[in-house]
């Protein structure tokens, strides 16, 4: 049975995309068939696995939209699911890419009937072909993120160890409760995990301690450290398991993936 996860945090720069890529890669290396869905118009997940929907220079400057469709065309009903799924650099890992066209979807969806269910409906057939679907949502709590949450069985929440972490988490969990009550009664909080952790700072230690004490079983044991190699891997279009499998970041994501698989089984 396929299980789908949305990676959600309304704050940017918390390691959401990095986590989706690397957890997906380690799931695939564990023998699972995994589909990554880039549901952010910044398309960082797409480039992080070596896919871009633009042709031109390395930054897309002066480029034009490539002919291959992505997630925008999928939720708009312009193409079928099989037209947007592409192979990623790990056996068993596939991706539905994104590009800047998706930024217009938020405006277009606002006045549509069932505007919060477009992604769920578009991914319905994928459940027959994959063990896991991982959706990388944009850093907001707008209509696109709601689509991602509603299309999922559970939400995974990456958190950076900083001062406003608890406040942001409270807002996010309230949104999840509203979705559970009104739109997706089967939705679960799949877990909370910490990213970019620096054990040398007292604040990081305090944030981990407070949130772990408050949410207890919802917090994963594995903590992702601040690691330069994790930051470098996306520029090469490959996950950390292929870029530097022995670095501390790689070991942490492998451990976290094992926790996710065990918790979701």
Radius of gyration, taken over Cα atoms and rounded to an integer in Å: 17 Å
Instruction: Return the domain count.
Output: 1
Strand percentage lies at: 15-25%
Rough outline: globular
Structural topology:
Blueprint: E1 3-7, H1 16-29, E2 34-38, H2 44-48, E3 54-55, E4 64-65, H3 71-75, E5 86-87, E6 93-96, H4 102-110, H5 118-122, E7 132-136, H6 143-150, E8 154-160, H7 165-182, E9 188-195, H8 202-215, H9 228-232, H10 240-243, H11 248-264
Parallel strand pairs: 1-7, 1-8, 2-6, 2-7, 8-9
Antiparallel strand pairs: 3-4, 5-6
Helix pairs in contact: 1-11
For the structure shown, list the relevant keywords.
Rossmann fold, 15% strand, 265 residues, seven-stranded mixed β-sheet, globular, alpha/beta
Q: Can you characterise this structure?
A:
This protein has 265 residues and is α/β, with parallel strands linked by helices. It has a single domain, classed as P-loop containing nucleotide triphosphate hydrolases (Rossmann fold). 39% of the residues lie in helices and 15% in strands. It is built from eleven helices and nine strands. The chain has helices at residues 16-29, 44-48, 71-75, 102-110, 118-122, 143-150, 165-182, 202-215, 228-232, 240-243, 248-264; strands at residues 3-7, 34-38, 54-55, 64-65, 86-87, 93-96, 132-136, 154-160, 188-195. The strands form two sheets. A seven-stranded mixed beta sheet has the order 5-6-2-7-1-8-9, with helices on both faces. Strands 3-4 form a two-stranded antiparallel sheet. Helix 1 packs across helix 11. The longest helix has 18 residues, at 165-182.
